[in-house]
Amino acid sequence: MNIPNQITISRILLIPIFMAVMLIDFGWGNIAFLGAEMGVNQFLGALIFLFASLTDWVDGYYARKYNLVTTFGKFLDPLADKLLVSAAFIILVEMNLAPSWIVILIISREFAVTGLRLVLAGEGEVVAAGWLGKIKTTAQIIAIATLLLHNPIFAWVDFRFDVAMLYIALIFTLWSGWDYFYVNRRALMASK
């Protein structure tokens, strides 16, 4: 297994650690960060989430630079992203930091696109992430991080940047999902 795929697997392995830090009360107290108050566990969880998210960029860069792009990596990388983002969004719902209807729409899109990829893979086609998918992922990461960190910086000026980013992430999530199905409609219809 090549290094980019190992990095992708490490992202998947960070998910249960992220979840444990976020959901188990270790009694670590609170912390103030850039105008926002939160539990130390939330701060550490946000750092783990951001580190895991950064590995997405690292494995992709490394795979392209050293020509290590594989079919397995093209499948596993977006799956790892979806698992990490889904776990984070579900935790945000549990913490009452994100509305469940938004999270349901986002996770539903992720399942739908994964299903599309599986159908197309059965037809011998591998669908790599497009530019809308990359914007969607970036918007989701920013939304999750700012929600986990209780709207840092913007808390000083009482502007809900975290909530605004959540809605922007929702828009790009739905748009990119529609785009995946639209661009691949012929291949999808041919697979009946």
Automatic annotation (TrEMBL):
<keyword id="KW-0472">Membrane</keyword>
<keyword id="KW-0444">Lipid biosynthesis</keyword>
<protein>
    <recommendedName>
        <fullName>CDP-diacylglycerol--glycerol-3-phosphate 3-phosphatidyltransferase</fullName>
        <ecNumber>2.7.8.5</ecNumber>
    </recommendedName>
</protein>
<feature type="transmembrane region" description="Helical">
    <location>
        <begin position="163"/>
        <end position="183"/>
    </location>
</feature>
<dbReference type="InterPro" id="IPR043130">
    <property type="entry name" value="CDP-OH_PTrfase_TM_dom"/>
</dbReference>
<feature type="transmembrane region" description="Helical">
    <location>
        <begin position="12"/>
        <end position="31"/>
    </location>
</feature>
<comment type="function">
    <text>This protein catalyzes the committed step to the synthesis of the acidic phospholipids.</text>
</comment>
<comment type="pathway">
    <text>Lipid metabolism.</text>
</comment>
<dbReference type="GO" id="GO:0008444">
    <property type="term" value="F:CDP-diacylglycerol-glycerol-3-phosphate 3-phosphatidyltransferase activity"/>
</dbReference>
<keyword id="KW-1003">Cell membrane</keyword>
<dbReference type="InterPro" id="IPR004570">
    <property type="entry name" value="Phosphatidylglycerol_P_synth"/>
</dbReference>
<keyword id="KW-0443">Lipid metabolism</keyword>
<keyword id="KW-0812">Transmembrane</keyword>
<dbReference type="Pfam" id="PF01066">
    <property type="entry name" value="CDP-OH_P_transf"/>
</dbReference>
<dbReference type="GO" id="GO:0006655">
    <property type="term" value="P:phosphatidylglycerol biosynthetic process"/>
</dbReference>
<dbReference type="GO" id="GO:0005886">
    <property type="term" value="C:plasma membrane"/>
</dbReference>
<comment type="pathway">
    <text>Phospholipid metabolism; phosphatidylglycerol biosynthesis; phosphatidylglycerol from CDP-diacylglycerol: step 1/2.</text>
</comment>
<feature type="transmembrane region" description="Helical">
    <location>
        <begin position="83"/>
        <end position="107"/>
    </location>
</feature>
<dbReference type="InterPro" id="IPR048254">
    <property type="entry name" value="CDP_ALCOHOL_P_TRANSF_CS"/>
</dbReference>
<keyword id="KW-0808">Transferase</keyword>
<dbReference type="InterPro" id="IPR000462">
    <property type="entry name" value="CDP-OH_P_trans"/>
</dbReference>
<dbReference type="InterPro" id="IPR050324">
    <property type="entry name" value="CDP-alcohol_PTase-I"/>
</dbReference>
<keyword id="KW-1133">Transmembrane helix</keyword>
<keyword id="KW-0594">Phospholipid biosynthesis</keyword>
<keyword id="KW-1208">Phospholipid metabolism</keyword>
<comment type="similarity">
    <text>Belongs to the CDP-alcohol phosphatidyltransferase class-I family.</text>
</comment>
